[in-house]
């Protein structure tokens, strides 16, 4: 891999509408916090890319530096850092997450 971990993260964040840096995969989250964010995104029917930080210590450390945020999971929408599990959950419960997706032009499941 020729690019640095920062360039890789930057590329993923900018080339995918919704990116979740998480422990495990969307199909098999390996921590409760990652699992909660996956459940919220799945409930909203939002398409997203999940990146497993457990596969690479470089990625796990790099994303914390990139976002200046100490914990995993981390959700990005259209290149913008949204937050971790607590923030995503609070935004979802308040209807703000759905509004953010709408403002950013990210399709959500109308039933949500």
What does this structure look like?
The structure is a single chain. This protein is α+β, with helices and mostly antiparallel strands and 112 residues long. Helix content is 46%, strand content 15%. The protein has helices at 5-15, 32-44, 57-67, 85-93, 96-103; strands spanning 18-22, 49-52, 74-77, 80-83. It has a four-stranded mixed sheet with strand order 2-1-3-4, sandwiched between helices. A hairpin with a 2-residue loop joins β3 and β4 (80-83). α1 packs across α3 (57-67) and α2 (32-44) packs parallel to α4 (85-93). The longest helix is centred in the middle third of the chain and has 13 residues, at 32-44. 30% of the residues are buried. The mean pLDDT is 95.
Features:
112 residues; alpha+beta; 4-stranded mixed β-sheet; 46% helix; globular; Thioredoxin-like_sf; iron; GRX_PICOT-like
Helix count equals 5
How far from one another are the termini? Answer: 39 Å
Whole-number mean pLDDT: 95
Structural class comes to: alpha+beta
The overall strand count is 4
Shape: globular
* Low-pLDDT windows of residues: none
Measured as a percent range, the helix fraction is 40-55%
Organism: Bradyrhizobium iriomotense
Family: Belongs to the glutaredoxin family. Monothiol subfamily.
Keywords: 2Fe-2S, Iron, Iron-sulfur, Metal-binding, Redox-active center
Protein name: Glutaredoxin
């Amino acid at each position: 891999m020729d690019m640095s971990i920062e360039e890789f993260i930057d590329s993923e964040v900018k080339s995918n509408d919704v990116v979740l840096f998480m422990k495990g995969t969307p199909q098999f989250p390996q921590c409760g916090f990652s699992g909660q964010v996956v459940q919220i995104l799945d409930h909203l029917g939002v398409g997203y890319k999940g990146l497993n930080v457990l596969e690479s210590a470089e990625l796990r450390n790099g994303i914390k530096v990139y976002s200046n945020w100490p914990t995993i999971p981390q959700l990005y929408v259209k290149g913008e850092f949204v937050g971790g599990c607590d923030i995503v959950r609070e935004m979802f419960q308040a209807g703000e997450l759905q509004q953010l997706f709408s403002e950013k032009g990210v399709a959500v499941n109308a039933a949500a």
